Amino acid sequence: MVNTRDRSTEEKILAAARKIFLNKGMDGARMQDIADEAGINKALLHYYFRSKDKLFEQIFLEVASSMLPRIFSIFQSDDTLFTKIEKFCDTYITQEIKTPYVPIFILNEVNRQPQAFLKKVLGNTRPPVEKLLQQIEQETKAGLIKPIDPLQLLLNTLSLCIFPFLASPMIQLLTGMEAKNFRALMEERKKLVPQLIIESIKN
User: Which segments constitute the HTH tetR-type domain (predicted)?
Assistant: First the structure.
């Protein structure tokens, strides 16, 4: 950011944008809505953030920089596999309840520009999943869990956590569910998903 920009105004814009994105989603949000919520004119909003995409990208990177280290620390910990599954589901779903618009943004960006997007989020590093994958193999060999491809287990866990947020507009439309009821349903999944995963693999 250039020095002429006021940090408090920028924070006010970001706070307003988070609220609008939460209530209206990425597609439903308009720059005018965000300007009104922040109590500024649209020209000033465009001075700080040229487009809705740039504004959303800033918010997403803040979310990623907060959440990814917590996820990676779970993968790299010395916890048992079952504990890691429980912690991952709780951490991931808790974050998505707060920012349900993020998964759709990720999906769109990964499809549109996968290499550029991943570099922006991860830099030149790879997600530290090796220890987790090795642990799955070791616990399989030790007879602690049923034989399963480590990548399949990781994909199963990610899918069960992510899909409801990707499909939330359809789910709410088909069931007539209000947003607060959907959030309550997702709270239940913080315990339900790890139970399903663990029951499917434990001996």
Answer: 7-67
Question: What is the distance between the alpha carbons of residues 172 and 184, in angstroms, rounded to a whole number?
Answer: 13
Q: Name the nearest CA neighbour of 65 among 113, 117, 122, 109.
A: 122
**Among candidate residues 51, 45, 43, 33, the one with its CA nearest the CA of residue 9:** 45
Phi, psi torsion values for 145, nearest 5 degrees: -135, 160
- pLDDT (tens digit, 9 = 90+) per residue, 25-34? 777 889 999 9
Element (H, E) at 177: none
Q: Cβ(203)–Cβ(143) under 8 Å?
A: yes
Q: Which two tokens stand for residue 118?
A: 């991943």
Phi, psi at residue 135, to the nearest 5°? -65, -40
The identity of residue 1, as a single letter, is M
Can you name the CATH fold of 61-201?
Tetracycline Repressor; domain 2 (1.10.357)
1-50 to CATH, choices 3.40.50.150, 1.10.10.60, 3.40.50.970, 3.40.630.30: 1.10.10.60
